[in-house]
Specification:
- This protein has one domain: 2,3-Dihydroxybiphenyl 1,2-Dioxygenase, domain 1.
- It is built from four helices and eight strands.
- It has helices at residues 14-25, 52-59, 61-64, 80-92, and strands at residues 4-11, 31-32, 36-40, 45-51, 71-76, 102-104, 108-114, 120-126.
- It has an eight-stranded mixed β-sheet with strand order 2-3-4-1-5-8-7-6.
- A hairpin with a 3-residue loop joins β6 and β7 (108-114).
- Pfam families: Glyoxalase.
Length: 144
């Protein structure tokens, strides 16, 4: 478990924020749409931007109101069972989760918790084809 880690920011406008990172740092998105942009880095690290409203819609506004900082850490597991096992182990250690493990529309099984400082964490694994979003070069936004 945890062979791949990611760090990202929870933003209002994914395209606007992604444009900054592509122009200034040359980041190339592997996936981008209005709700998410993922930028693979060297090794097993990924940087991402995730739309705040999309998380509110999927986790609930009451849950997202508990998030103190607009950043997120993520740990990728290899299987859905590993997500569930991590959830059970951490819950037994006293970690308070803000969600139960769940399969989401973006082809991932995820569970979320806040650390003691209020940072949001995700434990996830891909459950199907990794959604690539809208990467048609003819479309206006994804050329960044």
């Amino acid at each position: 478990m945890g062979k791949h880690t990611a760090h990202g920011y929870l933003v209002e406008d994914v395209y606007k924020e992604a444009e900054k990172f592509t122009k200034v740092f040359g980041f190339k998105p592997a996936r981008i749409d209005e709700t998410f942009a993922g930028f693979p880095m060297e090794g097993k690290v990924e940087f991402f931007l995730w739309q705040w409203k999309h998380l509110e819609d999927n986790l609930g506004k009451d849950v997202m109101a508990k998030v103190k900082y607009r950043d997120q850490q993520a740990i990728r597991c290899d299987t859905p069972e590993e997500v569930d096992e991590a959830y059970e182990q951490m819950k037994a250690e006293g970690v308070e989760f803000i969600s139960e493990p769940k399969d989401y529309e973006w082809n991932a099984r995820c569970v979320y918790f806040l650390d003691e400082s209020g940072h949001m964490w995700e434990i996830y694994c891909w459950t199907g084809a990794v959604p690539l979003g809208d990467l048609d070069p003819a479309k206006e936004k994804n050329g960044l």
